[in-house]
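Same chain as my last thread, 412 residues:
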Amino acid sequence: MALEIEVDPSEVGFDAARLQRIDRHFEQYVSSGKLPGWLVLVSRRGKIAHLSTRGMRDVANGLPVERDTVFRIYSMTKPITSVAAMLLAEEGAFELTDPVSDFIPAFADLRVYTGGPARAPQTRPATEPMRIWHLLTHTSGLTYAFNHLHPVDEMYREAGFENGMAPGLDLASCCDQWAAMPLLFDPGSRWNYSVATDVLGRVVEAASGQSLDRFFQTRIFDPLGMTDTGFYLDRSDEHRLASLYLADRQGRARLHPRHDQAREAAFEPPKAPSGGGGLLSTAHDYHRFTRFLLNRGELDGVRLLGSRTVDYMTRNHLPGGADLETLAMGAFSEAANAGKGFGLGFSVVDDPAAAKVISSQGEYAWGGLASTAFWVDPAEEIAVQFMTQLMPSSTHPIRSQLHQLVYQALVD
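reply #2:
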């Protein structure tokens, strides 16, 4: 299905001339070489009011970003995995307070890092079981190899997880390895961006009796009409896949050194499907997903989640109502984190003034490693997404600038 502008901006409260500021601003990113190309989509009340593309999906071959370009969405996979988990929770497959070890036995006897180097860590028993809600909120005590902030991060790298899943392991084996390494903290006590959503994907498998890719396909993608989203791409669509770029020291986009390897991997079913970052998708498909969220669990007459479940997922679940700036261990994104909590798979704005970025209370969002981003604002009935392929996402302040440019165009 083609992606098209569906409504005159003025009919949904936008000033069309002000929306053009988005394009003029981000055109400079392309002309200066900071981004290879991009797609931006702004919708309100379920209708696309602004849709534009600039630059190239493949610079070397002169292929432009088009409306059906396929992007690696990396951590924008996480909200989809969270929805999968909540589908099962609604059916009574588990409660959010259930221990993860009920589904992955290796997580039964967890230990917490207390000191020492990565090769000889000192540990103690965890005081709290890791529970499913800890996975959904990134309060599990797990980490990512790429964080480079803690000795346990180094342990993950030494175990082969530096570039995602360890080579040769399936998802169950990856989870067993993570369970064998120390936690950074007792579950529920801090926030740390981590492989928690990959573990959650394994919980989905164990609770449903289906592989994660099959569960996604039958329970989410098919019902929502997300026809171009999956863990790998058919060879017939190879021409639509965007190339992967890495920022150099000056912030300019250069073809990623592992681009050829990443490109080939995009056409192979993964041995360990990553619920934390493994999906490829299009602006059309992710717009379907954000519309489903904005409609509180329903799209085009198909209801996947109850409205109260979506409301519950998109409120702040951090202990004591804390924000990420207070509870998070280290930096993990370019976005300002003051005034933002975390729900069940999304960041959530609690205090727009504290964040110093124009937004609404209750707005929820997330992004991906290659600078993709989305947010949903229930108060204004807005959903926005930005697609590109530049790593890392912290290179440029794209997300905060896009916020400013979208909200300044809202004039009703």
